[in-house]
Automatic annotation (TrEMBL):
Chief location bin: membrane
PROSITE patterns named in the record: ABC_TM1
Protein name: Sugar ABC transporter permease
Stated family: Belongs to the binding-protein-dependent transport system permease family.
Transmembrane segments: 30-55, 92-113, 125-147, 167-192, 213-232, 275-297
Organism ancestry: Bacteria, Bacillati, Actinomycetota, Actinomycetes, Kitasatosporales
Coiled-coil annotated spans: none
Region feature Disordered, mapped onto this chain: 1-23
Alphabetical UniProt keywords: Cell membrane, Membrane, Transmembrane, Transmembrane helix, Transport
Membrane disposition: Multi-pass membrane protein
Subcellular localization, as worded in the UniProt entry: Cell membrane
Domain spans labelled ABC transmembrane type-1: 88-296
Amino acid sequence: MTATDVQATGVPRTRPATPSRPKRRREGAAWVFLSPWVLGATVLTLLPMAVSLYLSFTDYDLFNPPHWVGLRNYTQMFTEDPRYWRSVVATLTYVVIAVPLQLALALVVALVLKSVRRAKGFYRSAFYAPSLLGASMSIALVWRAIFNDGGTVDHLLGTGGWVTRPGWALLAVALLTVWQFGAPMVIFLAGLQQIPGELYEAAEVDGASRWRQFLSITVPMLSPVIFFNLVLQTIQSFQVFTPAFAVSAGKGGPADSTLFYTLYLYDRGFVASHMGYASAMAWVLLLVIGAVTAVLFRTSRSWVFYASDTDGGAR
């Protein structure tokens, strides 16, 4: 240690330790293994997002170079495009209908499967199958045939084809999403299996009914899982595209009742070749989803219960 390493007080000044060679080698190996993910995230996510943000301020038709127009796409979207607002209303209506119904059905089925003793794996796979098949175009086309004029629903109920009636077409699309309850159902079932059985036994000793046990034990203990499914399904519902495209033949009809946001974004970008306008719509959708997610996280403090909380309350 040299004299310059000693301060005026006579206390030796320690130098920052440099990483050892084995540690640097481990860090280098970690970056080597992470490089595919970093490269993929940069090339497939971050770079396209940056390009999309730039295009949202341009007039771009996919064939000619982008022309900078500033905020014109955004002002036109909010003030001059009535179909844009109809797509917003249709999407919000769909989210409000589909998400609660899907989660409620998933929770009911999970509660039933929890009490099943035999062939639980078979039933779990059978109820999960619609989540794997429902997102395909073929299932959406079959769904359209079922709810079309002369289809199964028309023969059973005599109400006419739902997909040709403005008041019913959106409900038909929402039911297709509700039918795909398998993924949240499996998550609910995993959460139910983590609830200690002693809580139900103590409640039975105290004379609590099944409904009281559900409200006082199941719902609070399952609230983190409910919150997780709620956030996940809400984000997915804002981005729904395939069912609306198949049911309305890509037009969002009848009377724009199934003109979901992503369907109108596709129409503006790839049908009308207004890619700059579609990019602006995509960024507004991203901000809205982020805002809705933030609100859900903010409000979760008042109703989501975590067993690790020291005060025994929600956070």
